[in-house]
Structure formats: C-alpha cells, structure tokens
Amino acid sequence: MSSNKNILDYKLYYFIGVGGIGMSALARFFNHYQKKVVGYDKTKTKLTSQLEVEGIKCHYSEDVASLADLLKEFSKEEILVVFTPAIPLIHKEYIYLQERNYTILKRAQVLGEISKQFKTIAIAGTHGKTTTTTLVTHILKSAAFNCFSFMGGISKNYNTNILLGDISNKESYFIVEADEYDRSFLTLQPEIAIITSVDADHLDIYGDQEHVKEGYRLFSKCISSDGTLVVKKNVDNDLKLTSKRVVYSLNLDTEYCADSIQIEDAYFVYNIKSSIEPISSVKLGLPGLHNVENSIAAVAVAQLVGIKADVIKEALRSFSGVKRRFDYRVKQPNCVYIDDYAHHPEELKATIGSVKKIYPGKKITGIFQPHLFSRTRDFVDGFAESLSMLDECLLLEIYPARELPIDGVNSQWLLSKVSSPVKKLLTKEQVLEYLQTNKTEVVLTMGAGDIDTMVEPIEVTLKSKN
Fold first, then answer.
1. Residue 2: band (very low, low, confident or very high) from pLDDT cuts 50, 70, 90
2. pLDDT at site 339
C-alpha cells in the first residue's frame, strides 16, 4: 500500500477467509463505511450468514471465474485484498490475485493501518487477551468514551465482535486484540498495551519459547515513547523489560492486585489495590479466577485513561463476558454446562481449576478437541496433566485447521497419557450419546476447532434430561 493512501480510500475490499473472528470484524468495519465488501470462506457458518444479512456477499468455493468478473467493475488501484495466514498459499483465488499484482495485505497489516489513525490500546498474551480486550471495551463504553474495538470474540453485552465510534474524532480510542500468531502484533502502534502471558505457543512459527519471548519484547517496543505497558508480574520477570510499565498480578504485592477474594453464588467478589484509586467490593459478572486477574489488567488501563472507580466497578458488575469464554450454557441446580475456547495446556488448567473451585465436590466431565497436530505434539505432556484434573475426560480427534497430519500424533496418543478415572476417545455423535445415557453434574467443552458446532446439541441434550 502506498504510504500516502488511507486504508479507507479503496472501493472494493475482498476478503480471503472472511469467516474468521478477526477477518469478519474488519469486513464489518469497511462495510459500515459503505464500501463494497465481498468474501470467501471454506464453510458457511452462523458468522458468515450474519455477514450476508448485513450486506457482505460471501461464497464458499474457490471460484476464480466469478472473482475475475467482480474485479472488472473496479480499477486495480481501487481494490484491496485482505487475507489471513490461516489460508494456504496454494489457494486458487490467492494465486490469481498475487500473479496479477493486486494490493494484498494480511489482516494484521490492515489493523496496523487503522491503529495509526487513533489512540490505540492493544491487548496481547498467549491467554486471556480476548476477555481482557472485551472488558476494556466495556469499561470505556460504560464511561461514554468514543471508541472502536476489534474484540477477537463475540461480546455477550453487545452481541458482536466489533464496536464502531466516530471516525472523524481523532481522540477516539482503538481497542484491539493483538495477535501474536505470525508476529502479527508487531504492525500495531499502541499508546497503551497489555501483556497477559507469554507461555510457549505457536511453535510452528516461533520455534521455541525464547523466540516467543523475543516476539513479546519486540511488541513492547512498538508502544509509543510516551505510552505505558500494563504487564503481569511473572511476564515482567520473564521478559526483563525496561520500558515504562505498570505491573499487575492476581494477589501478589504489585501496583494492581486483588485481595479479600471470596466466592458468592459462583461469582468472585474482591477488592482491587491501585496506586491511582482503590476499588472495593468488586463483583465481576464473569466467573473464573483467571478472569479476576484479567479484570485487574483492564482496571489498570481504565484508570490510565482517567475513568473513575465507581464507573469501573459498575462496568465490571454488568460485564456479561464473551461467547465461548467460560460461557454458561446451562445453569440448573442439578446440571451445569460451561463452554470455553481453551486450547493450550495453561488455559485448560485455568478453566478446569476455576470450575473445580466454584463447584467443589461435583463431578467434572470435560470434552476436549485438541487444536492442531503441531500444538498437540509440542505440549502433549502439558495437555495430559491439565486433562487429568477432570473426573471424566472425553476426547475428540485433533482438529487439523491449516495442518497436515503428523505421524504418530493423534488423540489416542494424548489419551494414553491422561490419568482421569474415566477417559474415552469418542466421535461427536458418541459424545452426545454418552451425555444422554450417563449421569453428569458439571459438563465442560473446550477447544478452538469446530467443537463450537456441538454446543447447541449438548445444551439441548442436557436440558432434555433435567
């Protein structure tokens, strides 16, 4: 893209992989400004169907002929192609566009261009970034700030993954989930950033833990010279950062932390220590101890931009969470069902640990779909340790996403390392049969693949029994 061309100066925005959570938000952004937006994705989903309702034409086959007809309506300079790294480079439409020298940008590059126009708040981390991004957004919206937000998940308060503000107001805040995959977050130029965690992940990109850390160090240097980094205590220790920063933790002696944490009706109530303005008797509208920690980071950001304690406290109470992030689907006296996006050993540990803390003595049945052969291979022992916290472990086959199979890496191998009293490798159909015929108390689905297609059938199955 030429250096003097604004990202909104194109007339046709063509998305390859429009159904992804981040890509769909960008498509909605340009559609909002009356641009022609068209997208391809591999499969039709609820999200792509919703995009079509909103006027974004989507198709589900690699159709070069139709694409060529569409492109004829515009000059080459009027067309921007946006793609996600999840799309294979052998994609027919991608090859067609590349060979003809159309302007093609990764999703992250487009986000970077948008971030240049506003005061940007970027939330990074191998875990917790979607919930924290959505929390920051909800607090700023509750304080009547003009802001744009790309949340990385569907906010349950707003039932969307994007919020739009006044684009003519250069004092607007742009809140964005900063994705470390493919080093995407290095395109952003934030005034305020959060780093929630730097556990090893995406080793197919980074190679090893040290290169993951190096990626986050580089991200911290993207913050403007007068900006601030909000960083978790153990991350700060790991990265040995020297930039201007505010350190937070769950309950250590840091600038921001919680104390007097109690559970009331499956929700956490706590006080937040703050160097600006302490907040007492916070009740977070989202369960999970890891979400208490996420809320502390969000509070630090809110206070850095000048929001008062009473507004923050009310926003935390009214926060409904994010779909597929500790998402209660059934909450009855004799049956609880929670759906979660957890797909890394540390995320599984946090989610299962929180469920066990909230429901002590209850039988926890976990259904997990591993995501990626490489991630399963790289972290198999960590996955086994986390899944062994379950009373019943029901495992689905690995969701391959962009990968080809790796010899010897499969769910049976992972299951052999799990030590839960009950453990089974099942198909999706067999999971529903198992839930129908066996007594369950607390059911938990976890994974980042297509396990989300099972959420409604499981919900129906469990409600029909109770």
1. very low
2. 95
Give burial (CB, 10 Å; 0-12/13-18/19+) of 61.
exposed
Per-residue pLDDT tens for 255-288?
Answer: 999 999 998 877 889 999 998 999 999 999 888 8
Reported for 41-47, long-range contacts at CB under 8 A and 24+ positions apart, including other chains, are 41/17, 43/19, 45/19, 47/19, 47/21
What is the secondary structure of 279-315 as a DSSP string? EEEEE-SS--HHHHHHHHHHHHHHHHTT--HHHHHHH
Query: Which of 357, 352, 358, 363 lies closest to 385, judged by CA?
Result: 352
pTM, two decimal places: 0.79
For residue 205, what pLDDT is reported? 65
CA distance 347 to 196: 12
Helix residue ranges, H only, 143-266: 203-206, 209-220, 233-239
CA distances from 231 to 280, 313, 350, 429 (A): 22, 21, 19, 43
Stretch (H or E) spanning 456: helix 455-465
Residue 208 clears pLDDT 90, i.e. is over it = no
Alpha-carbon distance of 258 to 278, in angstroms, equals: 10
Q: Are 355 and 442 in contact (CB under 8 A)?
A: yes
How far is it, in rounded angstroms, from Cα 310 to Cα 235?
29
- Per-residue buried b or exposed e for 291-330, using 16+ beta carbons within 10 Å of the residue's own CB: bbbbbbbbbbbbbbbebebeebbebbeebebbbbbbbebb
Mean pLDDT for the stretch of residues 192-209? 74
What mean pLDDT is predicted for residues 110-121? 90
Q: Which residues of 137-166 are buried (b: 16+ CB within 10 A; e: fewer)?
A: bbbbbbbebebbbbbbbbbbbbeebbbebe
Helix axes 129-142, 289-304, angle to 10 degrees: 50
pLDDT at position 206 is 56
Average pLDDT in the chain: 92
Helix ranges (H only) for 61-128 are 64-71, 92-99, 107-115
